[in-house]
């Protein structure tokens, strides 16, 4: 911001008119806050601006006072339609904003209303006939409004648009969609003022361009780091924790986490306890319920009524704390918060600042937060993030540039707006939005042709004109959002007849069956029945503490490269000191000067580093990768964060697999890549690939590797739906996944699916740079002769801190019991006369034919008449399909002959054929539960992908 702008802010309220200043006096606003002092003058002058300031410093008033002032000063004629839109990413924020702005509206005679997906038809009609001055809405509702005949007239008067929590939208496709929506609005209303609000933005210039279409804007940024204070703590297990563990039916380590959080809540008046996933929220909430603490759970899968209830009770002081997810990051009004607990590393600096920023500002206090960590990686990561947060080192926004399914969606939107439009005009509207400024016209035309092919619009090539088709209207209203559609099931308590929340379809498919238990809203529930047609799960409350925690998708927040590298730097500094003979206490003392924590926490985090140095093993750091292996597991220790490790892991899996002719399993965390390799592969194969792969070939290798990956197939189905290539109302089982890939290759649909996987999951350029550094002198590669303390530590990408290792015991038992009672069809392949349908539990340990005594018995589905007929037919009469069935039967019989009843159990599982069954049986295991666990995992995989196969 220029010196001139700063000078204008010395007496910010004087920039406002008499009516607004009188309202300020009545409201008790005597002195502007820092963001108000600096931002109100340029906003009152009509400038576009991005305002970045901590939560609770009056950002809403900063944006809206100049807007109210402009509305109040306008003449009656210019107030016929909508004067201002206030866009928020959450419906819950709409409700809060209306309440927050209501007083100003009543005092200044400015009408304010809310519109979103739940707004009644009556209210919508009223808003269209008699528009309010200010409408609070969501990005998706704006999409719908732009196509309404009466609403377009109202929108043509818009002069101000405020986008709240703009950082949340800048890195998402729904934000990219909004930017084109704003350009469609500009085409209708002419230029209007754009104001963006956020508590944290790591790349203000980029987000400002995102907001305004790069048309010039002010950045008003109030330093966040100086107003926050953090403490990182790793609880020590005490004797009291051992006793508490018995009460909570968990282990002492988890009991110590619960104790520390409980004590922090008791020390403060009102606390938000943030966790990273909904299952952790539920699991932690259930522990507090057991202890009788006045603490409730808040997350997006709970019903609206439940969320509002706990928000109101917390605001009224009836609850001491809320255990919450990112649903509470975005400024929902729950009254004053005086402390924030972050359970586990927050994974990102911006996330920590958003969360801890909820505390303290109401009294101009420093916002204070405590980070409670579980293990060494978690602690070091939290320390790096806390330091970076206090220094204001926020991650840059990762804007979706040129996402082609968004282009497709918005081309249809432009046609909906205008009825018919030239392709050139549509291209100009789309490319006026910053994320699409570099979209080539040839690519745009490919997208248009794809839409025309899918009958979402008519393209007249000669006239260069786009028109509505029969499918335009249906497609557009079914695709107002860029968030992929996922079926959700409502969860209803049949004893109280109320809805308590929702479950993802994947959870229902994989886990839910009558009698199964799970946690939601911090309480235990047992499933009574499932109504698939109504997408409803009916439950009853239970006291059993051993349920399966509901599993939601998308729970892993990727740790950025700079955070992971700082963890590597801490390791490097500590390793050097340990190598020089320093004690753990002295190393911890040195690190305390830089990081906000205590000696005990640091010493616990340094333990594996000290043990690694003592064993004379290389320590992985920011400049050193360490490869280690044992049996079929090879681990590459790499402090480069999720995306680079995911990229490098895929390259390694592809190229090592290519060398050995076998598939390679992969699991990734921010600090290690774990590969499950064939017996003939070794650590040397992995290091050879790292040292010989041309960095310039990384992208090509990944594109080849992606072709058969689930990630691309799932993304392709979602993108295809947005292009109308896979009509949602026809269902996703229209194509098998491989056929879908073949059908859409060399189309913009396929290009976008690849782009999205690369953008969301991978970091191709950074991984190529790492390989180049490794093959030069910038990064070293060491090998360890054994598994190391650091290499075996850390969290796996899917493991949640609060779920004990035996949490799935009841699920495994249920799977075992279900398979035992499933029916199979046994068929003798020697005489082919004998066949028998029976339950799995009645099958003998080594089945044999009672007619001829042979042990070559195929295990088939009980309804499989085709295979029986094919086996009994003469070989000369069999077609290709019959030959395939016979071959499959012989593979099944071979398994049963070799492995007896174990093979029958594996073959009876859902979606498991002879090849998969052989793979399950071949794994070495310590106990029977692992056998059923592998079967369950295969059944889940089948459930996830079943809709793709014919």
Walkthrough of the structure:
Helix content is 47%, strand content 15%. With 950 residues, it is an alpha/beta fold. It has 6 domains: 3-223, P-loop containing nucleotide triphosphate hydrolases (Rossmann fold); 227-390, P-loop containing nucleotide triphosphate hydrolases (Rossmann fold, 3-Layer(aba) Sandwich), CATH 3.40.50.300; 404-478, Winged helix-like DNA-binding domain superfamily/Winged helix DNA-binding domain (Arc Repressor Mutant, subunit A), CATH 1.10.10.10; 488-542, no CATH class; 617-804, no CATH class; 809-948, no CATH class. The strands form 6 sheets. A 7-stranded parallel β-sheet has the order 3-4-2-5-6-1-7, sandwiched between helices. Strands 8-13-12-9-11-10 form a 6-stranded parallel β-sheet, sandwiched between helices. Strands 18-17-21-20-19 form a 5-stranded mixed β-sheet. β10, α15 and β11 form a beta-alpha-beta unit. 49% of the residues are buried. The model is unreliable at 1-10, 544-555, 728-735, 795-808 and 946-950 (pLDDT under 50).
């Amino acid at each position: 911001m220029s010196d001139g702008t700063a000078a204008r802010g010395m007496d910010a309220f004087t920039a406002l008119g008499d009516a607004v200043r009188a309202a300020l006096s009545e409201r008790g606003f005597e002195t502007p806050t820092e963001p108000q002092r600096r931002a109100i003058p340029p906003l009152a002058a009509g400038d576009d601006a991005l305002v970045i300031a901590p939560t609770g410093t009056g950002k809403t008033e900063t944006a809206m006072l100049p807007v109210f002032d402009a509305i109040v000063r306008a003449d009656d004629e210019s107030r016929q339609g909508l004067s201002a839109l206030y866009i928020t990413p959450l419906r819950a924020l709409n409700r809060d904003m209306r309440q927050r702005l209501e007083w100003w509206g009543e005092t200044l005679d400015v009408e304010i209303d809310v519109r979103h997906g739940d707004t009644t038809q009556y209210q919508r009609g009223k808003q269209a006939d008699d528009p309010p001055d200010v409408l609070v809405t969501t990005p998706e509702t704006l999409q719908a409004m732009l196509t309404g005949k009466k609403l377009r007239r109202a929108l043509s008067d818009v002069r101000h648009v405020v986008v709240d929590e703009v950082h949340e939208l800048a890195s998402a496709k729904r934000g990219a969609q909004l930017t084109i929506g704003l350009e469609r609005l500009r085409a209708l209303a002419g230029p209007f003022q754009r104001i963006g609000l956020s508590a944290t933005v790591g790349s203000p210039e980029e987000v400002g361009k995102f907001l305004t279409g790069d048309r010039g804007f002010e950045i008003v940024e109030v330093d966040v780091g100086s107003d926050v204070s953090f403490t990182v703590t790793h609880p020590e297990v005490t004797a009291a924790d051992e006793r508490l563990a018995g009460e909570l039916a968990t282990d002492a380590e988890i009991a110590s986490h619960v104790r520390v959080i409980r004590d922090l809540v008791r020390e403060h008046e009102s606390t938000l306890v943030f966790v990273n996933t909904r299952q952790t929220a539920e699991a932690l909430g259930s522990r507090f319920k057991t202890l009788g603490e006045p603490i409730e759970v808040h997350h997006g899968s709970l019903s609206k009524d439940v969320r509002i209830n706990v928000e109101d009770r917390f605001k009224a002081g009836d609850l001491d704390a809320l255990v919450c997810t990112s649903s509470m990051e975005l400024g929902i009004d729950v009254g004053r918060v005086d402390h924030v607990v972050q359970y586990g590393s927050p994974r990102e600096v911006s996330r920590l600042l958003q969360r801890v920023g909820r505390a303290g500002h109401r009294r101009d206090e420093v916002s204070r937060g405590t980070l409670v960590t579980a293990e060494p990686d978690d602690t070091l990561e939290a320390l790096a993030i806390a330091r970076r947060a206090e220094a204001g080192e926020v991650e840059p926004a990762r804007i979706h540039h040129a996402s082609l399914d968004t282009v497709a969606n918005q081309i249809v939107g432009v046609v909906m707006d205008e009825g018919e439009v030239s392709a050139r005009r549509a291209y100009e509207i789309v490319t006026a939005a910053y994320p699409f400024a570099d979209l080539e016209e040839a690519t745009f035309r490919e997208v248009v042709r794809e839409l025309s092919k899918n009958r979402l619009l008519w393209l007249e090539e000669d006239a260069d004109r786009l028109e509505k088709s029969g499918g335009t209207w249906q497609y557009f209203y079914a695709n107002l959002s860029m968030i992929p559609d996922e079926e959700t099931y409502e969860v209803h308590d049949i004893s109280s007849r109320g809805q308590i929340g929702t479950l993802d379809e994947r959870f229902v498919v994989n886990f839910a069956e009558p009698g199964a238990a799970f946690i939601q809203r911090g309480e235990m529930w047992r499933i009574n029945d499932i109504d698939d047609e109504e997408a409803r799960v009916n439950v009853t409350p239970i006291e059993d503490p051993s349920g399966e925690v509901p599993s939601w998708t998308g729970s892993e927040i990727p740790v950025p490269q700079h955070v992971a590298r700082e963890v590597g730097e801490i390791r490097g500094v500590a390793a050097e000191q340990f190598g020089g003979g320093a004690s753990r206490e002295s190393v911890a003392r040195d690190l305390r000067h830089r990081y906000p924590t205590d000696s005990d926490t640091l010493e616990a985090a340094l333990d594996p580093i000290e043990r690694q140095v003592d064993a004379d093993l290389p320590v992985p750091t920011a400049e050193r990768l360490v490869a280690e292996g044992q049996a079929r597991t090879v681990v590459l220790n790499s402090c480069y964060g999720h995306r680079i490790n995911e990229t490098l892991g895929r390259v390694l899996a592809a190229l090592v697999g290519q060398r050995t002719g076998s598939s390679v399993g992969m699991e990734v965390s921010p600090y290690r890549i774990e590969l499950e390799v064939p017996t003939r592969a070794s650590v040397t194969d992995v290091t050879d690939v790292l040292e010989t792969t041309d960095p310039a070939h990384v992208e090509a290798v990944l594109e080849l590797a992606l072709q058969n990956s689930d990630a691309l197939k799932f993304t392709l189905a979602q993108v295809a739906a947005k292009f109308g290539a896979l009509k949602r109302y026809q269902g996703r089982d229209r194509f098998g996944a491989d056929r879908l890939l073949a059908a859409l290759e060399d189309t913009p649909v396929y290009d976008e699916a690849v782009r999205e996987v690369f953008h969301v999951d991978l970091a191709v350029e950074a991984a190529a740079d790492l390989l180049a550094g490794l093959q030069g002198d910038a990064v070293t590669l060491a090998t360890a002769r054994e598994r190391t303390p650091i290499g075996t530590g850390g969290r796996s990408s899917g493991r949640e801190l609060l779920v004990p290792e035996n949490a799935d015991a009841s699920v495994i038992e249920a799977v075992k019991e279900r398979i035992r009672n499933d029916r199979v069809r046994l068929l003798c392949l020697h005489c082919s006369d004998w066949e028998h349908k029976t339950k799995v539990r009645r099958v003998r340990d080594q089945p044999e034919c009672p007619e001829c005594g042979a042990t070559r018995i195929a295990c088939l589905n009980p309804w499989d008449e085709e295979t029986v007929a094919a086996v009994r037919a003469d070989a000369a009469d069999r077609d290709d399909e019959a030959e395939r069935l016979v071959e499959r039967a012989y593979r099944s019989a071979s398994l049963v002959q070799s492995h007896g009843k174990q093979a029958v159990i594996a073959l009876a599982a859902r979606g498991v054929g002879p090849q998969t069954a052989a793979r399950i049986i071949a794994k070495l295991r310590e106990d029977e539960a692992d056998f059923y666990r592998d079967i369950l995992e295969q059944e889940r995989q089948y459930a996830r992908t079943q809709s793709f196969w014919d």
